[in-house]
Amino acid sequence: MNRIIMVRVLAVLVMLLLFWLAFRKPRVIPGKGQSVAEMAIGFVKENIVDGVLGEQLGKKYLPLLSAMFFGILAMNITGIIPGLNIAGTSLIGMPIVLAIVAYIAFVWAGIREAGAGTFLRNALFPPGVPWPMYILLTPIEFINVFVVRPISLALRLFLNMMVGHLLLVLCFSATHFFVFTLGGVNALFGVPTLLGGFVMTLVELLAAVLQAFVFTLLTSVFIQQAASEEH
């Protein structure tokens, strides 16, 4: 158990606790906590799942995609929480795990919904292409679908959260240097770096939500493409 593992575990436990508190005694006329939780899940359902997968297919994958969205969001948010100060997704391990989950999900969806043969045919042999082109196109499609997709998902999440963390560290470290190390008149240089730190905190909050949204949306798109009977 090191610091980053502790942050990840804490983020997920807090997320689960909040949802448990909201839904432990569900009511027909919801209270404030239940209303907020329902709105949050409704946001994922309406803007990601149903919008990409449709209502029928979306029902099957809503639990997975909701868990993915809120799990990523919870671990992203820890980057701006005092005392934690690092996003659980800013080290490559967790983005890789999430990308593997997304990979398994869209492969499973393709086999389950379209059938293994149809899924592989759609993925590796796009229709409307002269057959000699498949000699070149099929290996490229294989790399794109089965290699590049999970790698791009992991790197996109990891790099965005890592860069945001480094910018926050730079801003607040510069403030500490100017104010406490140099002191005197030089402390005035700490004012813009401190303001920059607060601005970057707001940017990181936006990035935390956006990256959770993009990761979940792309996973939905991959599931939809895999599950369709034809492209």
Q: What does this protein structure show overall?
A:
The protein has 231 residues and is mainly alpha-helical. It has one domain. The protein is 80% helix and 0% strand. It has helices spanning 3-23, 32-77, 93-114, 116-124, 134-182, 190-227. α5 runs antiparallel to α6 (190-227). It is globular and about 75 Å long. The relative contact order is 0.14. It is found in: Cell membrane; Membrane. Key component of the proton channel; it plays a direct role in the translocation of protons across the membrane. It comes from Pseudoclavibacter albus. Keywords: ATP synthesis, Cell membrane, CF(0), Hydrogen ion transport, Ion transport, Membrane, Transmembrane, Transmembrane helix, Transport. InterPro entries: ATP_synth_F0_asu, ATP_synth_F0_asu_bact/mt, F0_ATP_A_sf.
